[in-house]
Amino acid sequence: MANVSESVHAHGDGGGDHGAHAHPDFLQHHFDTPVQQFNAAKLGMWVFIATEILMFGGLFCAYAIWRGLDPRVFDDAHHFLNKILGATNTIVLLFSSLTAALAVRSAQVGKRNLTSLYLIVTILCAGVFLVVKYFEYSHKFHLGLLPGHCFGHPGLSAAVQNGEEVGTCLRVHADSAPVMPEWVKAADEDGHVRLLSPRANMFFGLYFVMTGLHGLHVIVGMSILAWVLYKNIKGKFSPAYFTPVDLGALYWHLVDLVWIYLFPLLYLVGKPE
Amino acid sequence: MSAQGSHAVHAHQDDGAVHVHIASSQFYWGIFGALICLTILTVKVSYYDFGKANIFIALLIATMKGSLVAAFFMHLRHDKLFNTIAFLSSFLFLGIFILLTYDDLGNRGRVDNDYGGRFQLETGQAAPGGEPATTATSDSVAEEAPHGAAAAHGKKE
Amino acid sequence: MAAVDIPVAGGHAADAHGDPHANYLKAKRGIGSWLVTLDHKRIGLMYLTMVSLAFLVGGIFALLLRIELFSRGKTIVDGETYNRFFTLHGAIMVFLFIIPSVPAALGNFFLPIMIGAKDVAFPRLNLLSFYIYLVGLAILLVSIVSGAVDTGWTFYTPYSVQSSNSVISMTLGVFVLGFSSILTGVNFLVTVHTMRAPGCTWARMPLFVWGMYATALMQILATPVLAITLLLLCAERFFGIGIFDPKLGGDPVLFQHFFWFYSHPAVYIMIVPGMAINSELIATFSRRAIFGQFAIAMSSLGLALLGFLVWGHHMFAAGMSEFATMLFSALTFLVAIPSGVKVFNWTATIYKGSILWASPMLYGMAFIFLFTIGGLTGLFLGTLSVDIHLTDTYFVVAHFHYVMMGGTVIAFLGGLLYWWPKMTGKMHDERKAKIGFWFVFIGFNTVFIPQFIMGSRGMPRRYYDYLPQFEPFHKVSTVGSWILATGLFITAYTLLEALWKGKKAPRNPWNSAGYEWLTETVPPLANFHQPPVFTRGPYDYHLATPEELATGEDGREVSFTTQMAAKESTHPA
């Protein structure tokens, strides 16, 4: 980097010649060497990851505050989430993280088809994650376990109200005006009827915002990986230049990382039976 | 954890090209295995009650998993130090955010118990010199409410 | 003097990006070449245009506010419109003007040049950030047209949850502007880390770059929290998730925590760039190595860190726990340390310097004076007991205007005059610039000194009407706003006039040792004809060669060949 007159050796297929000096195609005009460009891209991605963590961090802060002030509510409410589905999704995401890492590795050693394969598997796993999430969400909608003033809304909890015992339980208020609901009883994921504090709307509010924002990131991640896949099929990458694969995978690992924390915080912490 | 099998190119030539540490496929699978074990562990542990430690145990296991992902899947272990610093600093500032915010919300009405109309957060009782508490905390309501009544089987799913 | 036709190593001949040796203003022509440019200098100028327009619009709202307050009761608008005016004045000035002003306009232009880079690390992100800024601006305009917001720029709940629907478009606009800010921050941080030219070590890095670096850190770490805050506010409006709503078990003061966790660092995002410019002005016009360069650099980082620890001082009277107020108050006093370090070091630099009273230096001196007032009155407000009396009075208004306007805007104007020759290749009329300065300086103090007095006597801020005893102060303040506006128009005219009537600018009109003055006026597309190698610090007047310090009437770049030869003999390829 210090020596400006050195020539640049690109491995593989790079090395288009602009003017007097060797200058691989992928090297942007304002960088001196591929390694400078690579380091800049990596640092940029890591800094971006830091911003993402702080953005999710706001939600974790809200979680910490309200759980800290009212642990009992969160204990009760979290039984309405399905641990098994959550764990399944965790494993799906971890596996997709593995394939993303392997995609980067294949790109580093120049196995293009293998890179494509791993990227496809990663995107498929993301799809599976979203499908599972869809079932979880629709079940919650069904029960009326919704954030804020939609919580226990009559139209959304009809199925529950038909039940004899449970019907009297889920708090139903005639108008959807945001008033503090009362204590409600409802059957949780294990079939136990338990009391749900009026503040449980806070838990479900956070649940939906946190997993919703995460789901949005899953969709963005899928699009990024699909773009990387397209470029890879077109043969843009080589052992000398695999930065987009690396960065796309980093983004995907971030999505995984956020879920690694969301899963226990939403599904697992609290008093067991 | 599997040994760090790798065939990294550690030639120290300063030719401006990108040289990175490349771990073996088996190594990545090994990390994945460890992550799965930890996931199973965290689910298993959730069926035992450790009281207030529940959340810390869950977070500890999550942090172990997160560290594995960051260090190996995300290559931080062999990356530039500053990338790690950038990554970790986000947690530092998040910690500042949560702690100082909690410092307010967790301590409301605590210091000036002697002024009127306050109750003690911990017990819900009137503070010395204050008026009797009129607002009940959700905890005290929960004491009165019946808990775990007859289960409504088969009403859902 | 460098021969321009030396073959340039590492670069390449004319390609899609244009000839790297051509004057950046002329490398490509046509409006289209500006709209898709990846050149940081052009993007900086486009930003400069937009932030100047934003400043004009925000300034017009300020003048309208002052006219309304000229007399008691209704003067020109009714109370509701008044509320909208101050909201728009605040939101436009904060989000559209001050936050992007110095970093995105001047920083974009000069940061790469001052570290000897050809461009920022991610030129496309840089352009994207500009367009995101435009989108945010458009959304804000929509919210103004569709019935302006009257919440104040802080969007406090619960009012922002209940008031008109344009709050949504307003928050969305601010959300989008936040992304623009984050992209600029990421770009600067990576540029500083990876693109510094040989010899531009951390120890030698210009203080303007240090300031931009500290600003970037804050933009990166704080702005995402604003994004999530505004998302939660929208969620609160649409679904009533209840986190900020006491009726649903939430807490409105929690919103203030979220908001100020961003917005207090944002205050430093606004002022640290002003300090960064001022360090350059003071060093150049005192013709001296800046006193305590390392201390000033570290104090920028110190401010960046402390900015994250003191947000609670905006909420002393909002019902926070007493425990937290004491902690935040104590932490707030720490801010005085890095601020003091800067002021004392600038003063020490001026001491026994050979001062050139050019127009930028007038602004530099005014910065020290006005920022000191703004900073010291901050200590009043950080003191719990005094703050109870002063909260939400004109004292607060005057305090932050002394910091934001007396600090950042003054430094921004100084920086514009200082760098205008390098940016445009034209010299402005110094006499007019100085007249403009005195109008600005006198006008500014006339506006805000009465506000300190009113505030300490209990005049609340944001009020449409006031008691008779405040009338003289309001009248003086309004008259001051006219003087201030006159000064700003004179300054703007001076700068614009230079574009068509100004003399051709020399390479180094202020005889500075700074790195940015080594390159040609106007800088070539690649910033330097030869890849620069720095062999001394940017304030080392004792090491700078006479050639480097010379005015350089022909505008040609200083030669780096001798330094490069020396470098290569010690580090053979």
Break the fold down into its secondary structure elements and pairings:
The complex is a heterotrimer of chains A (273), B (157) and C (573).
Chain A: E1 17-18, E2 21-22, H1 34-69, H2 71-78, H3 83-108, H4 112-143, H5 158-162, H6 164-167, E3 184-187, E4 193-196, H7 200-233, H8 243-268
Antiparallel strand pairs in A: 1-2, 3-4
Chain B: H1 25-45, H2 53-73, H3 81-105, H4 138-144
Chain C: H1 31-35, H2 40-68, H3 79-114, H4 123-145, H5 159-162, H6 166-194, H7 207-239, H8 252-286, H9 293-306, H10 322-334, H11 336-350, H12 359-382, H13 384-390, H14 394-424, H15 430-456, H16 471-501, H17 546-549, H18 561-570
Helix pairs in contact in C: 2-3, 2-4, 2-16, 3-6, 3-7, 3-8, 3-14, 4-6, 6-7, 7-8, 7-9, 8-9, 8-11, 8-12, 8-14, 9-11, 11-12, 12-14, 12-15, 14-15, 15-16
Compact overview of the structure:
Chain A has 273 residues and is mainly alpha-helical.
Structure description:
- With 273 residues, chain A is mainly alpha-helical.
- Chain A has helices spanning 34-69, 71-78, 83-108, 112-143, 158-162, 164-167, 200-233, 243-268; strands at residues 17-18, 21-22, 184-187, 193-196.
- Chain A has a domain at 44-151 and 200-267: Cytochrome c oxidase, subunit III, four-helix bundle (Four Helix Bundle (Hemerythrin (Met), subunit A), Up-down Bundle), CATH 1.20.120.80.
- Chain A has eight helices and four strands; from the N terminus they run ββααααααββαα.
- Chain A has a two-stranded antiparallel sheet. A two-stranded antiparallel sheet of chain A has the order 3-4.
- In chain A, helix 1 (34-69) crosses helix 2 (71-78) and helix 3 packs antiparallel against helix 8.
- The longest helix of chain A is centred in the N-terminal third of the chain and has 36 residues, at 34-69.
- By secondary structure, chain B is mainly alpha-helical.
- Chain B is 47% helix and 0% strand.
- Chain B has helices spanning 25-45, 53-73, 81-105, 138-144.
- Chain C has 573 residues and is an all-alpha fold.
- Chain C has a single domain (11-570), classed as Cytochrome C Oxidase, Chain A.
- Chain C contains 18 helices and no strands.
- Chain C has helices at 31-35, 40-68, 79-114, 123-145, 159-162, 166-194, 207-239, 252-286, 293-306, 322-334, 336-350, 359-382, 384-390, 394-424, 430-456, 471-501, 546-549, 561-570.
- In chain C, helix 2 packs parallel to helix 4.
- Chain C starts with 30 loop residues before the first helix and ends with a helix.
- Residues 1-15 of chain C have low confidence and may be disordered.
- Chains in contact: A-B, A-C, B-C.
